What we know:
The protein is mainly β. Helix content is 13%, strand content 34%. The protein has one domain.
Amino acid sequence: MSDTKEVAKAKSSEVASYEGMEQYSGTGFGEVGSEDLSIPFLRILAQLSPQVNKQDGAYVAGAEAGMMFNTVLNEVYDGDQGIQVVPCHYNRRFVEWKQREAGGGYVGSYLPDDPIKDTTTQNERGQDVLPNGNLLTNTSQFFVLMLHPTFGAQRVLMTMSSTQLKKGRKWLTQAQSMTAKGKNGIYVLPLMSQVYTVKTTPEKNDKGNWFGWDISRERGLNLSVPADKDIFESAVGFAKSVEAGEVKVKDEAPEEAKDVTPNTSDGNKDIM
Protein backbone atom coordinates (compact mmCIF):
# COMPACT_ATOMS: atom_id res chain seq x y z
CA MET A 1 0.00 0.00 0.00
CA SER A 2 1.25 3.44 -0.86
CA ASP A 3 2.08 5.87 1.92
CA THR A 4 0.80 8.68 -0.27
CA LYS A 5 -2.81 7.51 -0.10
CA GLU A 6 -5.04 9.61 2.13
CA VAL A 7 -6.70 8.03 5.13
CA ALA A 8 -10.15 8.76 3.73
CA LYS A 9 -10.92 8.83 0.04
CA ALA A 10 -12.98 12.00 0.31
CA LYS A 11 -12.62 14.84 -2.15
CA SER A 12 -11.11 17.98 -0.65
CA SER A 13 -13.92 20.06 -2.16
CA GLU A 14 -16.45 18.30 0.10
CA VAL A 15 -15.27 20.17 3.20
CA ALA A 16 -15.79 23.62 1.71
CA SER A 17 -19.17 22.65 0.23
CA TYR A 18 -20.68 22.18 3.71
CA GLU A 19 -20.06 25.76 4.83
CA GLY A 20 -23.29 27.62 5.54
CA MET A 21 -25.36 24.46 6.06
CA GLU A 22 -25.38 24.39 9.88
CA GLN A 23 -28.69 26.27 10.11
CA TYR A 24 -30.31 23.47 8.09
CA SER A 25 -28.98 20.67 10.30
CA GLY A 26 -31.23 17.61 10.12
CA THR A 27 -33.53 19.05 7.48
CA GLY A 28 -35.16 16.35 5.37
CA PHE A 29 -34.96 13.54 7.90
CA GLY A 30 -38.35 14.24 9.47
CA GLU A 31 -39.71 10.68 9.62
CA VAL A 32 -36.44 8.77 9.84
CA GLY A 33 -36.32 6.50 12.89
CA SER A 34 -33.74 4.09 14.26
CA GLU A 35 -35.47 1.24 12.41
CA ASP A 36 -34.62 2.96 9.11
CA LEU A 37 -30.88 3.12 9.80
CA SER A 38 -28.13 0.52 9.99
CA ILE A 39 -24.66 0.83 11.42
CA PRO A 40 -21.82 0.39 8.90
CA PHE A 41 -19.17 -2.26 9.24
CA LEU A 42 -15.47 -1.44 9.20
CA ARG A 43 -13.91 -4.36 7.34
CA ILE A 44 -10.45 -5.36 6.18
CA LEU A 45 -10.29 -5.87 2.43
CA ALA A 46 -8.79 -9.14 1.23
CA GLN A 47 -7.37 -10.20 -2.13
CA LEU A 48 -10.76 -11.60 -3.19
CA SER A 49 -12.91 -8.77 -1.83
CA PRO A 50 -15.11 -7.34 -4.62
CA GLN A 51 -14.05 -3.79 -3.71
CA VAL A 52 -10.51 -4.46 -5.01
CA ASN A 53 -11.63 -6.10 -8.28
CA LYS A 54 -11.96 -3.58 -11.10
CA GLN A 55 -14.23 -6.00 -12.96
CA ASP A 56 -16.72 -6.13 -10.08
CA GLY A 57 -19.66 -3.74 -9.72
CA ALA A 58 -18.70 -3.22 -6.08
CA TYR A 59 -15.20 -1.98 -6.96
CA VAL A 60 -14.02 1.09 -5.06
CA ALA A 61 -11.44 3.29 -6.76
CA GLY A 62 -8.02 2.95 -5.14
CA ALA A 63 -9.02 -0.04 -3.01
CA GLU A 64 -6.31 -2.60 -2.25
CA ALA A 65 -6.08 -5.69 -0.08
CA GLY A 66 -5.14 -4.64 3.45
CA MET A 67 -7.12 -1.41 3.37
CA MET A 68 -10.12 -0.86 5.63
CA PHE A 69 -13.56 -0.43 4.10
CA ASN A 70 -16.62 1.43 5.42
CA THR A 71 -19.64 -0.49 4.13
CA VAL A 72 -22.05 2.47 4.28
CA LEU A 73 -19.85 5.43 3.29
CA ASN A 74 -18.23 3.15 0.67
CA GLU A 75 -14.83 4.60 1.61
CA VAL A 76 -11.46 2.93 2.01
CA TYR A 77 -8.78 3.84 4.55
CA ASP A 78 -5.08 3.11 4.30
CA GLY A 79 -4.18 0.15 6.52
CA ASP A 80 -0.61 1.35 7.04
CA GLN A 81 -1.59 4.87 8.08
CA GLY A 82 -4.61 3.74 10.07
CA ILE A 83 -7.58 5.51 11.57
CA GLN A 84 -8.50 6.52 15.11
CA VAL A 85 -11.45 5.01 16.96
CA VAL A 86 -13.05 5.20 20.38
CA PRO A 87 -14.52 1.84 21.52
CA CYS A 88 -17.97 2.29 23.05
CA HIS A 89 -19.51 -1.14 23.63
CA TYR A 90 -18.49 -4.77 23.33
CA ASN A 91 -20.46 -7.95 22.99
CA ARG A 92 -19.95 -11.48 21.69
CA ARG A 93 -22.32 -13.45 19.51
CA PHE A 94 -22.41 -16.70 17.59
CA VAL A 95 -23.49 -15.65 14.12
CA GLU A 96 -25.08 -18.04 11.63
CA TRP A 97 -24.42 -17.55 7.91
CA LYS A 98 -25.38 -19.41 4.78
CA GLN A 99 -22.31 -20.62 2.91
CA ARG A 100 -21.36 -18.95 -0.36
CA GLU A 101 -22.35 -21.96 -2.46
CA ALA A 102 -25.80 -21.81 -0.83
CA GLY A 103 -26.23 -18.17 -1.76
CA GLY A 104 -24.63 -16.64 1.31
CA GLY A 105 -26.36 -14.31 3.73
CA TYR A 106 -27.09 -13.70 7.37
CA VAL A 107 -29.40 -16.14 9.17
CA GLY A 108 -29.32 -15.13 12.83
CA SER A 109 -27.20 -14.58 15.94
CA TYR A 110 -27.10 -16.30 19.30
CA LEU A 111 -25.94 -15.43 22.80
CA PRO A 112 -22.71 -17.06 24.03
CA ASP A 113 -24.58 -19.53 26.26
CA ASP A 114 -26.87 -20.81 23.50
CA PRO A 115 -26.49 -24.61 23.10
CA ILE A 116 -26.39 -24.27 19.30
CA LYS A 117 -22.62 -23.86 19.53
CA ASP A 118 -22.34 -27.47 20.72
CA THR A 119 -23.98 -28.85 17.57
CA THR A 120 -21.26 -27.90 15.06
CA THR A 121 -18.59 -29.93 13.32
CA GLN A 122 -15.49 -28.57 11.59
CA ASN A 123 -15.03 -28.75 7.84
CA GLU A 124 -11.73 -29.03 5.95
CA ARG A 125 -11.22 -25.26 6.19
CA GLY A 126 -11.57 -25.31 9.98
CA GLN A 127 -14.98 -23.60 9.86
CA ASP A 128 -17.72 -24.57 12.30
CA VAL A 129 -20.68 -26.03 10.40
CA LEU A 130 -24.19 -26.55 11.74
CA PRO A 131 -26.25 -29.67 10.92
CA ASN A 132 -28.21 -27.58 8.37
CA GLY A 133 -24.97 -26.78 6.50
CA ASN A 134 -24.73 -23.16 7.62
CA LEU A 135 -21.62 -21.68 9.23
CA LEU A 136 -21.56 -20.61 12.88
CA THR A 137 -18.96 -17.94 13.63
CA ASN A 138 -17.77 -17.01 17.11
CA THR A 139 -17.66 -13.22 16.77
CA SER A 140 -16.43 -10.35 18.93
CA GLN A 141 -18.30 -7.14 18.17
CA PHE A 142 -16.79 -3.75 18.96
CA PHE A 143 -19.14 -0.80 18.50
CA VAL A 144 -16.83 2.16 18.02
CA LEU A 145 -16.77 5.82 17.04
CA MET A 146 -14.50 6.29 14.05
CA LEU A 147 -12.93 9.77 14.15
CA HIS A 148 -13.50 10.64 10.51
CA PRO A 149 -11.37 13.51 9.14
CA THR A 150 -14.35 15.03 7.30
CA PHE A 151 -17.55 13.90 9.02
CA GLY A 152 -16.38 13.75 12.64
CA ALA A 153 -17.26 10.89 15.00
CA GLN A 154 -18.99 8.14 12.99
CA ARG A 155 -20.65 5.06 14.47
CA VAL A 156 -19.23 1.84 13.02
CA LEU A 157 -18.98 -1.82 13.95
CA MET A 158 -15.72 -3.77 13.98
CA THR A 159 -16.07 -7.56 14.12
CA MET A 160 -13.39 -10.10 14.94
CA SER A 161 -13.62 -13.83 14.43
CA SER A 162 -11.39 -16.79 13.64
CA THR A 163 -7.72 -15.75 13.78
CA GLN A 164 -8.68 -12.28 15.02
CA LEU A 165 -10.42 -13.35 18.24
CA LYS A 166 -7.13 -13.08 20.13
CA LYS A 167 -6.82 -9.47 18.92
CA GLY A 168 -10.17 -8.72 20.52
CA ARG A 169 -9.13 -10.35 23.80
CA LYS A 170 -5.94 -8.31 23.85
CA TRP A 171 -7.86 -5.09 23.19
CA LEU A 172 -10.35 -5.82 25.99
CA THR A 173 -7.56 -6.74 28.40
CA GLN A 174 -5.72 -3.51 27.67
CA ALA A 175 -8.89 -1.45 28.03
CA GLN A 176 -9.76 -3.04 31.39
CA SER A 177 -6.26 -2.33 32.68
CA MET A 178 -6.80 1.43 32.33
CA THR A 179 -7.46 2.85 35.79
CA ALA A 180 -7.57 6.20 37.58
CA LYS A 181 -7.75 7.40 41.16
CA GLY A 182 -11.11 8.83 42.22
CA LYS A 183 -12.77 10.00 45.43
CA ASN A 184 -13.35 6.41 46.50
CA GLY A 185 -10.01 5.01 45.38
CA ILE A 186 -8.81 3.32 42.20
CA TYR A 187 -11.45 2.60 39.55
CA VAL A 188 -11.50 1.10 36.07
CA LEU A 189 -11.95 3.74 33.38
CA PRO A 190 -14.92 3.37 31.03
CA LEU A 191 -14.26 1.66 27.73
CA MET A 192 -14.83 4.90 25.80
CA SER A 193 -12.20 6.86 27.74
CA GLN A 194 -9.41 6.02 25.29
CA VAL A 195 -8.57 6.70 21.64
CA TYR A 196 -6.97 3.84 19.70
CA THR A 197 -5.26 3.71 16.33
CA VAL A 198 -6.49 0.89 14.13
CA LYS A 199 -4.23 -0.38 11.35
CA THR A 200 -3.91 -3.64 9.43
CA THR A 201 -1.02 -6.04 9.27
CA PRO A 202 -0.17 -8.98 6.96
CA GLU A 203 -0.47 -12.40 8.60
CA LYS A 204 -0.03 -15.98 7.48
CA ASN A 205 -0.01 -19.59 8.55
CA ASP A 206 0.11 -22.94 6.78
CA LYS A 207 -3.42 -22.35 5.47
CA GLY A 208 -2.77 -19.07 3.71
CA ASN A 209 -2.14 -15.32 3.88
CA TRP A 210 -4.44 -12.53 4.98
CA PHE A 211 -4.54 -9.14 6.70
CA GLY A 212 -5.44 -8.78 10.37
CA TRP A 213 -6.13 -5.99 12.82
CA ASP A 214 -3.33 -4.03 14.49
CA ILE A 215 -4.68 -1.97 17.40
CA SER A 216 -2.68 0.33 19.67
CA ARG A 217 -3.61 2.91 22.27
CA GLU A 218 -3.17 6.48 21.06
CA ARG A 219 -4.20 8.61 24.05
CA GLY A 220 -6.83 9.18 26.72
CA LEU A 221 -9.71 11.60 26.29
CA ASN A 222 -9.43 14.81 28.32
CA LEU A 223 -12.88 15.98 29.41
CA SER A 224 -11.56 19.49 30.06
CA VAL A 225 -11.04 19.80 26.28
CA PRO A 226 -14.39 20.60 24.59
CA ALA A 227 -13.71 18.44 21.53
CA ASP A 228 -12.77 15.44 23.68
CA LYS A 229 -15.81 15.98 25.91
CA ASP A 230 -18.08 15.94 22.85
CA ILE A 231 -16.50 12.69 21.66
CA PHE A 232 -16.90 11.09 25.09
CA GLU A 233 -20.53 12.12 25.40
CA SER A 234 -21.25 10.82 21.91
CA ALA A 235 -19.55 7.53 22.81
CA VAL A 236 -21.60 7.16 26.00
CA GLY A 237 -24.77 7.84 24.02
CA PHE A 238 -23.78 5.23 21.44
CA ALA A 239 -23.12 2.64 24.15
CA LYS A 240 -26.52 3.28 25.74
CA SER A 241 -28.23 2.94 22.35
CA VAL A 242 -26.56 -0.44 21.75
CA GLU A 243 -27.48 -1.67 25.24
CA ALA A 244 -31.09 -0.58 24.69
CA GLY A 245 -31.28 -2.51 21.42
CA GLU A 246 -31.75 0.65 19.37
CA VAL A 247 -28.79 0.03 17.05
CA LYS A 248 -29.55 -2.07 13.98
CA VAL A 249 -26.67 -4.08 12.60
CA LYS A 250 -26.68 -4.37 8.82
CA ASP A 251 -26.61 -8.10 8.23
CA GLU A 252 -23.56 -8.70 6.09
CA ALA A 253 -21.40 -11.79 5.93
CA PRO A 254 -17.86 -11.43 7.32
CA GLU A 255 -14.89 -12.23 5.11
CA GLU A 256 -14.54 -15.60 6.84
CA ALA A 257 -18.01 -16.62 5.65
CA LYS A 258 -17.01 -15.64 2.10
CA ASP A 259 -14.08 -18.07 2.12
CA VAL A 260 -11.60 -15.18 1.92
CA THR A 261 -9.77 -15.37 5.25
CA PRO A 262 -8.35 -18.62 6.70
CA ASN A 263 -10.37 -19.80 9.68
CA THR A 264 -8.14 -21.34 12.30
CA SER A 265 -7.74 -21.85 16.05
CA ASP A 266 -10.29 -20.42 18.50
CA GLY A 267 -13.44 -21.56 16.70
CA ASN A 268 -16.36 -21.72 19.15
CA LYS A 269 -14.28 -21.61 22.31
CA ASP A 270 -15.53 -19.37 25.08
CA ILE A 271 -13.75 -16.02 25.30
CA MET A 272 -14.20 -12.86 27.28
